[in-house]
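WP5 quarterly update. Target: Protein FAM33A. Source organism: Thlaspi arvense. Length: 83 aa.
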Amino acid sequence: MKLTQRIKKLLEDVTVLKDQCLELLSAKQDLIDKAQTTLVGNYNLIQKMNSSLGESTNGDADDALADFNQVGAFFLRIANSIP
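Structure tokens (predicted):
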């Protein structure tokens, strides 16, 4: 009888933990989306400023933005893979 109760309690705990993980992933994705929006806006503004000053664009900034987009896509795949 005690074993059955412990198993039921563990199943409840796993369900609660799963829900909390989904909430955390959702919050992380929201944060990534907001950061991405801000960074893309700043990136575009810098590109316009450089262009108006006659400066060439920086390839490192392009690489950094691409890396950030990959991180966002990674978290999105994780969130979508959880049943």
